[in-house]
Structure formats: structure tokens, C-alpha cells
Design goal:
The protein has 33 helices and 25 strands. By secondary structure, it is of the alpha+beta class. The protein is globular, with a radius of gyration of 31 Å.
Amino acid sequence: MTSATAGAILRAETLATDPAAAAHAGAKAANLAGLQAAGYRVPPFAVLGTDTCARLLAPSADAVAAMLAGLDPDDPATLRSVSSRIRTLVEGRPLPADIAAELEAVVAELAADGPVAAGEVRFAVRSSVRGEDSATDSFAGQLDTVLNVAASELPAAIGTVLASNWSERALFYRARRGLDDAPVACAVVVQVLLDSAVSGVVFSCNPRSGDPSEAVVAAALGLGEGVVAGTVDCDTYFVDRATGAITSRVVAEKRSRVVAARHAAGTTVEELGDPVTVAALSDAEIRELAEVAGALADHFGAPQDVEFAYTPDGRLHLLQARPVTATGARETVFDNVNVAESYPGLSSPLTFSVLRAAYERVFRTCHRDFGATTRIIDRNAADLYPYLVGTARGRIYYNISNWYRLFLEIPGMDFAIEGWEAALDIENRYQRPPVPARGIARLRAIALRLRVFAIILLGRLRLPRRLRAFFTALAAATEDLERRLEENAPERERDAHALLAWTERFFDELVPAYSVQIFNDFLAQQMFHVVGLQLRRAGLAEDEALTLRNELFCGEDGVDSVDPVRSALALTARVRADSALRTLFDGPATAQQVWTALSEDRFATFRAACLRHIAEFGDRTVDELKLETDPLGEHPERLVPMLRNYLRGGQNADDMIAREQAIRRAAERTAADLFAGARVRRWLFRLALRLAREHVKQRENMRLGRSRAFGLLKRVFREYGRRLHADGLLGDPRDVFWLTYEEIAALTRGTAVDTDTTRTVALRKADYERWQAQRLPSRIVTTGIAAADIGDPALEQPAGDAAEGARVLHGIGCAPGRVEAPALVLRTPDPDVAIDGQILVAATTDPGWVFLMVAAGGLVSERGSLLSHTAIIGRELGIPTVVGVPGVTGLIGDGDLLVLDGRAGTVTLEQERRP
């Protein structure tokens, strides 16, 4: 490029020599100019400065202001509509003639300097915001980038970047930050897009530890977008900067790459015919990157995060350099995968505190079961076991970082991580190092693995006895609590101190006994994974193996979780057979009126059957593990709408199970044909399948036991609430759920720092009311003090974040079957909702949803995995089920006509309901 004349568009060489011009170019463009001036190879670029961009936006200012007046950022429909109209307005304005002419001239210069013929040059168009790498409200990451743009399409792409000032996410971000509606002052970079063979990011220091002596390189095939967005498999290399030695490398099996779209702007992920298993970079390239990053760190006086690309001719280009942020700060990953099934939405402070304490005790015991030594347990007592779950604005998350530590703290146990990730549908992040090829290190690795296998085998043999011990302990705890809570029991047996002592025994005796379930879960996850591996190794494609595995787990006998449904269906059969009962249930009476009517003598036998059902299964409710959720015994009238749903739908558990058993038998015949002629492999497959079925079944049976154990705690804390209320510490007995278990113990024993429970309860109620309207991501990554990131308003997501326009949604098919029916979207569970064959659409479900599922035609959930309760019960009852459909509750509305295919894992929106 030869011209450096001043105008609407700033040339790279101008930025390097003119500080005033650089001030109008934004941080990204100024950094690029600095790299080029320092002698590094940078793709040719130019910048539409902040003054120029302000001029482009000025004609739309009044219309935009009018559209933003009165905008409610918490209303997804309004947010979406306003954003769309503003973007249409801004994107539709042509460039002024002088700017268009200058852009055309500059583009010709850039194309002439580019690596390909001028007519074939494509461009990247990005925002460049002043201070975007450091300012609190800089909008870094909020504005759009458009890649693979033809020269003729650059004006439209510039409009798209500028219009992204008012994207849904940017508007939502502004509102949460308390910012005004003026667009952020940004420039726009127009840069030649390289046809990258390999691209990625290099850090001059270790970004996690902050160690300046170690450089870290992440690389993938194709364009760098795949590395930054995490959409493709990446290699990772660690380099000693002092010696240039590559100290460690993780080479991924690269199945895809990001490439420029062929017939339009943008990029696409291209699947590779054969996975690439060799390193994306040569050792010389890795060392070159480490040297460049180190030199840039010295040049800029701070550790650097550098984006790079290698073109097919092997030449290195630098795409961006910026300071590494938050070096040395501990990163913690929180994810609600799986835990959201049991604790959807918001959970009370009491529920979270009890769950946290329970996890601490269960997994400390469980760690010992898997071979952790006393030394390992003592080492992790303070900072691992107490922090396996976290809370963010009332929602419960797993501390995934610590769950990985659970595996890695036991030498030789890392082999199990892959099966655990697959069972919970966690993105595979852990790359197990290869077993040493020879020598003492190899013998030690084998010995550790054999030790773990021996421990697991011994634990498997002890499993039946330990399961019986848990249910024995549960029965004893139940009997003891019932005795204490009898009306004529002595006061000293049921006062606050006695209740606290009983709860402590519950945690010390019954909760550790529940660790047998974790051991059983582990076996279920591993054997379920093994069955899938064996099917794939027998020649099935991954999707075919997944489907066949699901069908092999249909129709399992002896699943206790189905017993509550069978009991309810038996009650429904009684109603059908009795004309007086049928008239009562079919009539207009409310649920409470029906239950009151059942007190009449003529219904005495049926009422007694209902009370037996409630006594046996009253702890199985929607949100059953939340202590604030009332058991069925406190609201027996809620049994009425459940039975009414079954009366309308004509459900019959035996017919459902018969259908599933037919699917199971057909799958078994397919599997037998698959392993025909391979006697040893067939025997191993049958063994793995039998063990997997046994442990999956026991998993569900233990969940019913867990529900009953939590039912005991519900009774204890309700009694506690009544006593705190009677002593004037709570305005309402139910306010006990706004306190934590530790606070209740401190109030009882005189160690409470703050005894103003009325103020505490009021503050927490206000917080939860505000949090209820917020939408948080399923995964939260924090650095340093976790509360700082959890409290950041930018963490929230607009309710309409999910992609629109999709007619076919994809998830994980869990229970085969195809059904066409209207959608019933339940964002929060409602035990009184009328269900008659609709397809339930939910963010997540818990075991108590089984009563709703039975009356539904199918089930779709945003969260879940192949071993989630939803999947297992769907298979057991023959209800087509698809889980793991991102954002489905925002994409589908009540009454929309859906076609759900539980085998293919698809949900097709056939027709939207018109208001």
C-alpha cells in the first residue's frame, strides 16, 4: 500500500506514525498497526475511524431513539422486535458517495497487497473499540464480526457491524449495566482474510498460572474462528520459553475445520473425510510462535495473547495481539448439567446448604470407596469435598473443576473421565496422557490401573449388601423421626436442640450410606459407555449405535421409579369402574372440592386407597428434592388433577411397558445378528449389557429412596420453622427456607453473628424475586473470586438468545417413537396442569415429572443426557423423548404443532399457533 492520505478511511501506516489518527481507530486497529510497524507480517487492513462511523450512524439517530423509548429489555419479544427494526434501518442505509468512493480505492490497494489475485480477495470486517481490552463497559465481544466478505459486499458488512450496536445482546447488556442507549464509539476494520491452513492462539505466559516462563499454543486446522469459538478440535502445546523445549503436547483427533463459505459471506464448519491425528503444527512452528509471543511481551511490557495464522506456503501472519487478562487467577467452571434435572430453576438457601453438606459427606465417603488413601482424603477435606456444588443467583451448579479433581486425585482413575463426561453429556475437555511406552513408568501406570480395577471389582461384590444397609438405615431414621413427631412424644424429643441433633445424625449416618448410590452410578455410567463402544466397534455408525443402545434399555422390569405411576394408574382404573367416582371426577368441581367429597362414606374405600398411595409415594412430587416443595400429604387434593389427566388420556402402564419390551426384543435380535460368529465378543457384549441394565435400574430405585430421605428432612425443617416462628424469630414458619442449615444451627446454639432473621429473610426474598426473571447460562466460568463474576450483570442472557427460524431442532434421542401433537411449554412445573397427549416442552425435568410424563404424548427438554432420569423413564414407559435441545422453551410456543422423533432426536415445528 502506498497511499497514506488523510480521509474517511485510515491507512495502516498512518496509524503507526500519527497518534491522533490512532486515537480514532480503536484498540484493535492500533494494535495491528503496532505489530506491522514492529516488522511482523500482518494481513493488509484499513480502518473506518470513529468519526466516520459516527457520520454513518447520524441519519438514523432520531428513528433509533424513538424505537428505544420505553424498551423493556426483560421482554424477549419486544427486545427481538426493536433490535430487528433498528438493524434493518441501519443496515439499509447506503454509504455516502465520498466514503463509498474512498472505500473502493482502499479496497483496490488492499487487494493489490494481498496474497491472492485481486478478484479473489475476501475480507474480514470487525469492530475496533477504544480500550476494548480493559474498560469495564467496553462492549468487547458484544459487536458482530463478518468474515469472508467480497469487495462488493463490504458496505453491507460495515452496516452489519455498526448495526450490531443494537443487537438483542447489546441492548440487554446496556440495560443490565445501566448504560444509555447511545451507540458505543467504535471504528470498523476492513482486513484481507487469509486462507489459513492452521490458525490459533499463542500465550506468552501460561494463562491459568501466570507463569511467564511457559508459553502455551492452541492450534486447529482452517480459520482461527474455530479455536476462539471452540467449535473444532484443537491441539495444545506447552513450551519452555528459556530453552524452547516443548514440555507437553495434547494432539487432538481433528475431525473438522472452519473454512470460508463457498457461495456467501461467513464461514462454515467442514467435516473432514478422515480425521487428522497428526499435530497441526511442526515443532519448528511451535517454537517460532513461542519466540514471537515472548518478543511481543517484551515489546509491549506485558504478557500477550496473540492470534496467528499459517498460510499454505508456511508463512506466519499475526492477526491480533492484546494483553493476557487475569493471569494467575484460579479459573473455576460451574455447570448445571445433570444437577438441573433435580434442582431446576431457583432453589431456596436452605435447600442449597443442605445439598452442599450432603455432597461433602457423600463424596468424602465415596472417595474412600474408590481407593483414596487417608492422606488424600485429609488433603482434600478443606477445599474439595465442601465445594462440589455452587450457587449462582439462587440456581444450583456443579463445580465441574472440582469434579475433575475427584477423579484425578486417585492415581489411575483418570480412565473413567471419558465415560463420566459422556453419561452427563459434558463437553469433552480432558485429554488423558498416553500410557508410558516402556520402563518403570509403564509398569507403575499398569499397576495403578490394576489397583483401581481391583477396588472397583471388590466394590461391585459389596454393592448388594451396601444397598440393603442404606434402606435399613433409611427405615430406622424414618421410624425414629415418626416417633419424635408424634403428638404425645415428650417435648425434649422434639424441641429445636433435639431436631438439630437428629439432623446431624442424618448427615453422619444416613447420608454417608448413600455413597453406595454414587458407586452404583459410576458403574452404570461406565458400563453404559462400554455398551456404546462395543456397538460402534462392531461396525455401527455413531448415530446407529446410539439408537440401538437406547432401544436395548427399553422395557426394563423392576424399576421402582415406575411404581408411583402404576399406583396412580390403579387408582384411575378404580375411578373408571365406579360410575359415582367417574361422575365426580368428570364434573366441574375443583380439585379441593373433589377431595372434600371423597370424605363421604360411599367413597371411603377409594379414599383409603388414595391415602395409602400418598403414604407410600407422597414424597415423589415435582421438584421433590427442594425442601421448600410440599409433599403430597400436605396437599392431597393435588392427586385429583393427576388422576383426571390419566382419565382423559386413557393411559395404561401395562400397555406402555409391553410396547417398550417389544422394542427391546427387536433390539436384542439386531444386536445378536451384529455379533453373530464372534463368540467371545458376543459374550463380552452380553455381560456389559446385563451389568449396565442392572446398574441403571438400581440407579432409579435409589432415586426413590433419596426422595424419601429428603422427605424426612422436609418434615424436620417444617417443624423447625414452626418453632422459630413460635419463638418470634420468623414472621412465618415457611420463612425457615430462606435461612441456611448453618444459620439455623447457629441460631439454636448461640453462635449466630446476625440474629436479625426478619431482615435476612426480607433481603433474600427480594433477591430471589429479582433473580427469578433473569436467565443465566448453563455454564459459568469464573476467575479469581467466584462471586465477582457471578454478580456481573453481563452474565445474564436475554430470554430470546436462542437461534430463531429453525424448523427442525436437534437433541439427543432417548426413547424411540414418533408423535405429532401440540406443544405444552412448562417453564416451571405445575402439578395441576391439564395434560392430554400434548408434547411437554421444558427447560429441564426432575424425577417428580414422571406423573406429568405419563399423560403426555412426548417430552422435549433443554437439558439432560442418555442416563438422566427423564431418558430412563421415557424408555421405561414408551414415551418418545428428546433431551439436550438448546433453547427449546424460547423457540416453541404453547400450542405449536410439533413432530417429535425420539429415535432420530429431532423436534420439527410443523405449524406455529396463531394468537
